[in-house]
Amino acid sequence: MAQQEQFDLVIIGSGPGGYVAAVRASQLGLKTAVVEKASRLGGVCLNVGCIPSKALLDSSEYYHLAKERFAEYGIKTGKVSLDLPAMLARKDKVVADLTENVRKLLEGNNIAIFHGTAKVTAPGAVEVKKNRKKPVVLATKNILLATGSEPIEVPGLEFDGKHIVSSTGALSFNTVPKHLGIVGGGYIGLELGSVWNRLGAKVTVIEMLPKIATTLDGQVGRTLERILKRQGLEFKLNTKVAEAKVIRNKVKAVLESGDQTETMSFDRLLVCIGRRPLTKGLGLEALGVETDPRSGQIRVDETYRTSVAGIYAIGDLLPGPMLAHKASAEGTAAVECMAGRAGEVNYDTIPAVVYTWPEVAAVGLTEEQVREKENPYCVGSFPFSGAGRARCMGETDGFAKLISHGKTDRILGVHIIGPRAADMIAECVLAMEFGASSEDISRTIHGHPTFAEALQEAAMSVRKCSIYAS
Ligand SMILES: Cc1cc2nc3c(=O)[nH]c(=O)nc-3n(C[C@H](O)[C@H](O)[C@H](O)COP(=O)(O)OP(=O)(O)OC[C@H]3O[C@@H](n4cnc5c(N)ncnc54)[C@H](O)[C@@H]3O)c2cc1C
């Protein structure tokens, strides 16, 4: 085995956790290498997650607007038709450009890139294997595990990559399925369901629990379900898919709800019930790196150190929401801790977004969580139908809802379902970082006409002084 040069830090995985950590490490003067087993950098997020899904969400939304809504705005387009190969090619180009930017970013920061599958053979030694070539061993002071997650496969619903697929398959269907079944009503299923529904598929979402998107504030979740139903998505709640078989190009699925059983036929079945940490083959067991036996998540301390000295972990490998910005924040904090700085992540202010239309965005506690904690609290909300900008755009669905402490007025959570919620939540994250009160937001001057005025009105209505609420 060839012995390679010595590094301060070897990062395994080049997703938003790994590549951001690498750049920060380089800024802090650490000699850094990144190992990536895929041919392209950027991880799940850039290649088969956040970016391709949002590219398709944007394209399909434009298609839907052109086909169904332009007339309302006085625009005549004639017959609108779908060019799916062009839409998919555009998505692929967005991905290719962004992954190439990550390469340039790493190279520009003098970070060594190794393509191959990594295994930690000892603390301070990372073996990298590529095809049948002789493995390379990287010697390093510290190792950062950033290998992310993989989709959970359900027994009886095994992925075949064509008819029964994970989210990766559903980003590249070469035709619009007539009927798409989706197992799991989480945000990935709802986003991809929205894409194919807008492009003409009948979409049925099958969810074992009594509601979709279970982590959302209850009022927001119910509103989202109602709006998506109106858009044409069908929901089968309290229902389990027991098995699915591909027969003559169709997926025959057996659905169980209580003691009722029914069979449904789909052209494609997307199974997205969750993801699990990807630690297979890293050699962690032999090294004694502790993981949670149930979830497979790696146990770390507040500096992201695992149970083995010199080995750190971040991102989807750890407990908490599986989100790109969480992985990046942890990557930055872990490297800062390694370099003797005070790196930290505020887990109370991690925003979460669902990119359906309307969008959903949230930060902090839901009303149900606040109630459970038995905190005294106040709620203010304001509908987008009352915001001038939303009327101009013809996007009046949804509302902004702000929850603050009943005694101190400190903001505990904000939940927005409406146009551009994803961008609007940033103001609320900042407000919570600064320990702001609802009164702070209500007295902050917001531009007119903007969607963010609905947020200001929601904050005002906490103290019953909304100007426009009826
Ligand atoms: C369809 C979909 C949509 C999503 N949309 C969003 C969104 O809108 N917003 C959001 O915040 N999050 C979204 N996510 C989640 C987000 O993609 C993940 O939370 C994020 O990518 C996790 O980052 P990470 O750095 O921990 O790992 P990853 O991005 O998973 O990167 C891990 C990398 O490690 C590599 N690797 C694994 N094992 C090895 C090994 N042994 N050797 C070398 N390399 C290895 C992998 O190839 C991969 O490139 C989405 C996910 C999916 C599936």
Question: How many β strands by DSSP?
Answer: 22
Q: Hey, roughly how much beta strand do the residues contain?
A: 25-35%
Class per helix and strand makeup: alpha/beta
User: How many H/I helices?
Assistant: 14
What overall form do the CA principal axes indicate? globular
Concise synopsis of the structure shown:
With 470 residues, the chain is α/β, with parallel strands linked by helices.
Structure write-up:
This protein is of the alpha/beta class. 32% of the residues lie in helices and 26% in strands. The chain contains 14 helices and 22 strands. It has helices spanning 18-27, 43-48, 50-69, 84-108, 167-170, 187-198, 218-230, 284-287, 324-338, 367-372, 388-393, 421-433, 438-443, 452-462, and strands at 2-12, 32-36, 112-115, 117-122, 125-129, 136-145, 149-151, 164-165, 179-183, 202-206, 234-236, 240-247, 250-257, 260-266, 268-271, 275-277, 311-313, 352-354, 359-364, 377-383, 399-405, 411-418. The strands form five sheets. Strands 1, 2, 3, 4, 5, 6 and 17 form a seven-stranded mixed β-sheet that branches. Strands 8-15-9-10-11 form a five-stranded parallel β-sheet. Strands 18-19-22-21-20 form a five-stranded antiparallel β-sheet, with helices on both faces. Helix 1 links the parallel strand 1 (2-12) and strand 2 (32-36). Helix 1 runs parallel beside helix 9 and helix 3 runs parallel beside helix 6. The mean pLDDT is 97. The structure holds flavin-adenine dinucleotide (FAD). Flavin-adenine dinucleotide binds at residues 12-18, 35-38, 43-45, 49-50, 53, 117-118, 146-149, 167, 188, 278, 281-282, 315-316, 322-325, 327, 355.
